[in-house]
């Protein structure tokens, strides 16, 4: 079947009233948590996973995907009006977006963020659709050795993107892998690291890990710092761009979309990397770089387009290779597993309605998001006026109910609290939790493929370097590590993170 | 005695070593097998050794790598937030004590307890505001989760 035929199948699924409602729900929740600082897509997806049990798998995935790209829309609102990232991937938008708002151009900044995101969303949906077929055909040639190497590359990628020391990030990955294999070993039936606790025999739940490390730890750390939030006082008058602003912004939107789509596919990539890279590029190509940081519209248009493009194309490795490349995709693996779908190249052929339905729902969701974010902007601004002291107990409540309803088991909540404590400790020690979550999800897959690869090669470890695809993937991983370890680039990487935080 | 210049790395290193040692010690009960026929103990052993190596490198490196000091830990938010969450779970679904099943407090009362208790972790805690918000959220929780999503949760005490 040709691409148009596939897309028609997809729209047939995505445009059913039932799935439209779930796309809208995802987009709404995504915008909501994007606007609210202190809760991100990882914790939200964890929170909503249990309620998707009873839903058809495609509706569940449509809704959860909407949360990720919806958050990219919502995040910009907070960055522009509050000078505080609603989402980490909108952090760079603060630099110029807030300055625009202070100059009375909040409306223009919000408009270009939403329109740029929409354009990027449309382009990257097509990108996902076109790249997916050849990539999944390639992936069907993969054996266990290739999968092992691919996972290694993916995990190294997540390390490169982590803040701070490389060594700590690698250790977090390994710890994640270890936590991932807790529970019954599928081959021998041995209950590993269960410590006699019956609930641990089924393994540690991904919801508990994600909610503890990303949800609870974040709330606690916000409570410890006494940052004051200040909403900009100016009224958002017109939500439109002047002709000059449009002229200045559209090349940045194009560049951001292209860059974001590319970076989204890379291991470790996604919305975050895309927005940082786009800001750097915009500053490089600008005729007058000194305007950046003082309200340059390109500094909003580029990164906001890029983060949405990156959010969507980061589904490509998951849907075609079965490998999650960032923490949000790790949660999507959790969602697919719950619905008994093994992520990988076979999804497209065995379940085309699910695959194409999800891809086309992204375009539908983006259309909804423009409506949700432009005309309804007033509602989101109102929401920003709710003080954090009222907000966080509500977030805690929804998180607790979410964790509890995974299996109506109070032990799960206790386990989540333990991961919350671990999370706050890791934050204090500057150990990023994202590599741990990725390792956690990949742990069982990695062990299984390692086992099979070495079983097939009769214990000969050279199998990983004698098969060409596997060798290429491993070389890429090594190259990535060397690149980052080089002193020059390392400084650049630290600067990029520092700039984003400033 | 060498001085620790990077306390965060040093402590992180020790924690990774501790996890690695646990993996190896507990994992020594599982059959190791060979590379070609891996037993359940093989992969954990590899990971444990890796963790010890990485943690060791971090700890040793912290003797000359300069790092910022650890900020003091305000234990109150951690304790109150995590405590109120655990208490919530215990109120909704109490454990068996000496074989006797205790009655559930129900979603409404549990929510009120969670909201008021966890609100008190904030330096800007306002009791009245927390009470109002707890009643509102309890109604919302029942509406969304029990009526809307039809989750199996007792609403009032003694229902579960």
Question: Which outline of chain B best applies?
Answer: flat
Fraction of residues in β-strands of chain A: under 5%
List the secondary-structure elements of chain B in sequence, H or E: HHHEEHH
Mean pLDDT of chain B comes to 87
Q: N-to-C SSE series of chain A?
A: HHHHHHHHEEHHHHHHHHHHHHHHH
Strand content of chain B: under 5%
Biggest sheet descriptor of chain B = 2 strands, antiparallel
Helix fraction bin of chain B: 55-70%
Largest interface, Cβ cutoff 8 Å? A-B, 64 and 69 residues
Q: Structural class of the helix and strand makeup of chain B?
A: mainly alpha
Multimeric status of the protein = heterodimer
Give the beta-strand count of chain B. Answer: 2
Helix content of chain A: over 70%
Number of strands of chain A: 2
| Rg of chain B (CA only) | 24 Å
Give, in spatial order, the strands making up the sheet with the most strands of chain B.
1-2
Low-confidence stretches of chain A: none
Radius of gyration of chain A from CA coordinates: 22 Å
Task: Considering the chains and any ligands shown, give keywords for the structure.
heterodimer, A: 502 residues, mainly alpha, two-stranded antiparallel ribbon, 73% helix, B: 160 residues, 2 domains, two-stranded antiparallel sheet, 5 helices, 2 strands
Describe the structure.
The complex is a heterodimer of chains A (502) and B (160). By secondary structure, chain A is mainly α. Chain A has one domain (3-501). In chain A, 73% of the residues lie in helices and 1% in strands. Chain A is built from 23 helices and 2 strands. Chain A has helices spanning 3-14, 17-35, 41-48, 57-82, 91-102, 106-139, 144-161, 166-180, 206-224, 243-265, 271-285, 298-313, 315-321, 327-338, 346-350, 352-373, 377-384, 388-404, 410-428, 434-456, 463-466, 468-485, 487-501; strands spanning 183-184, 191-192. In chain A, strands 1-2 form a two-stranded antiparallel sheet. In chain A, strand 1 and strand 2 form a beta hairpin. In chain A, helix 5 packs antiparallel against helix 12. The longest helix of chain A is centred in the N-terminal third of the chain and has 34 residues, at 106-139. The relative contact order of chain A is 0.19. The model of chain A has no long low-confidence stretch (mean pLDDT 87). Chain B is mostly helical and 160 residues long. Chain B has 2 domains: 7-61; 75-148, no CATH class. Chain B contains 5 helices and 2 strands; from the N terminus they run αααββαα. A two-stranded antiparallel sheet of chain B has the order 1-2. In chain B, strand 1 (96-97) and strand 2 (100-101) form a beta hairpin. In chain B, helix 1 packs antiparallel against helix 2 (42-61) and helix 3 (75-92) runs antiparallel to helix 4 (106-119). The longest helix of chain B is centred in the last third of the chain and has 22 residues, at 127-148. Chain B is flat, with a radius of gyration of 24 Å. Chain B starts with 6 loop residues before the first helix and ends in a 12-residue tail after the last helix. At the A-B interface, helix 8, helix 9, helix 18, helix 19 and helix 20 of A face helix 1, helix 2, helix 3, helix 4 and helix 5 of B.
């Amino acid at each position: 079947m040709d691409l148009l035929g596939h897309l028609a199948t997809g729209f047939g699924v995505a445009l059913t009233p039932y799935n439209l409602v779930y796309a809208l729900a995802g987009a709404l929740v995504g915008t909501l948590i994007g606007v609210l600082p202190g809760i991100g897509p990882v914790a939200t997806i964890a929170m909503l996973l249990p309620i998707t049990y009873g839903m058809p798998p495609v509706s569940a995935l449509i809704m959860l995907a909407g949360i990720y790209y919806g958050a990219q829309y919502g995040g910009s609102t907070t960055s522009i009006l509050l000078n505080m990232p609603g989402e980490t991937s909108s952090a760079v938008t603060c630099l110029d977006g807030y300055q625009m708002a202070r100059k009375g151009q909040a409306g223009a900044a919000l408009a270009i963020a939403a329109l740029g995101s929409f354009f990027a969303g449309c382009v990257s949906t097509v990108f996902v659709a076109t790249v997916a077929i050849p990539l999944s055909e390639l992936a069907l040639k993969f054996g266990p050795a290739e999968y092992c190497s691919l996972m290694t590359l993916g995990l190294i990628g997540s390390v490169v993107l982590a803040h701070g020391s490389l060594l700590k990030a690698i250790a977090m990955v390994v710890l994640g892998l270890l936590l991932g294999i807790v529970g019954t070993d599928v081959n021998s039936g041995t209950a590993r690291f269960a410590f006699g606790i019956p609930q641990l025999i089924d393994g540690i739940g991904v919801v508990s890990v994600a909610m503890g490390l990303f949800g609870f730890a974040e709330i606690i750390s916000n409570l410890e710092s006494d940052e004051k939030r200040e909403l900009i006082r100016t009224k958002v008058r017109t939500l439109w761009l002047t002709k000059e602003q449009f002229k200045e912004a559209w090349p940045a939107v194009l560049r951001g979309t292209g860059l974001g789509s590319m970076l989204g596919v890379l291991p470790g990539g996604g919305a975050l990397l895309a927005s940082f890279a786009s800001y750097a590029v915009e500053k490089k190509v600008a005729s007058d770089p000194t305007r950046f940081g003082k309200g340059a519209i390109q500094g909003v248009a580029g990164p906001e387009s890029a983060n949405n493009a990156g959010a969507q194309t980061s589904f490509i490795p998951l849907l075609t290779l079965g490998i999650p490349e960032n923490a949000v995709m790790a949660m999507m693996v959790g969602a697919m597993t719950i619905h008994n779908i093994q992520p990988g190249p076979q999804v497209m052929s065995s379940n085309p309605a699910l695959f194409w339905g999800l891809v086309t729902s992204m375009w539908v969701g983006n259309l909804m998001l423009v409506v949700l974010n432009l005309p309804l902007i007033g509602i989101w601004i109102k929401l920003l006026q709710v003080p954090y002291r009222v907000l966080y107990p509500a977030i805690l409540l929804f998180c607790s109910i979410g964790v509890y309803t995974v299996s109506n088991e109070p032990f799960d909540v206790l386990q989540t609290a333990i991961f919350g404590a671990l999370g706050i400790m890791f934050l204090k020690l500057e150990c990023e939790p994202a590599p741990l979550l990725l390792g956690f999800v990949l742990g069982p897959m990695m062990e299984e493929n390692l086992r099979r690869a070495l079983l097939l090669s009769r214990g000969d470890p050279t199998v990983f370097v004698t098969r060409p695809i596997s060798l290429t993937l491993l070389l890429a991983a090594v190259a990535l590590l060397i690149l980052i370890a080089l002193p020059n680039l390392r400084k650049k990487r630290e600067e990029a993170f520092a700039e984003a935080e400033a | 005695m060498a001085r620790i210049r990077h306390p965060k790395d040093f402590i992180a290193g020790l924690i990774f070593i501790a996890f690695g040692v646990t993996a190896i010690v507990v994992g020594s009960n599982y059959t190791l097998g060979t590379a070609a026929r891996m037993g359940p103990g093989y992969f954990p052993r590899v990971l444990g050794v890796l963790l010890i190596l990485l943690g060791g490198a971090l700890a040793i490196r912290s003797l000359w790598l300069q790092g910022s000091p650890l900020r003091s830990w305000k234990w109150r938010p951690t304790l109150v937030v995590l405590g109120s969450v655990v208490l919530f779970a215990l109120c909704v679904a109490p454990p068996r004590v000496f074989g006797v099943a205790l009655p559930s407090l129900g979603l409404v009362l549990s929510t009120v307890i969670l909201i008021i208790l966890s609100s008190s972790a904030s330096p800007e805690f306002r009791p009245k505001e927390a009470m109002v918000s707890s009643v509102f959220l309890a109604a919302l929780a029942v509406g969304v989760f029990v009526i809307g999503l039809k989750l199996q949760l007792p609403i009032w005490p003694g229902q579960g």
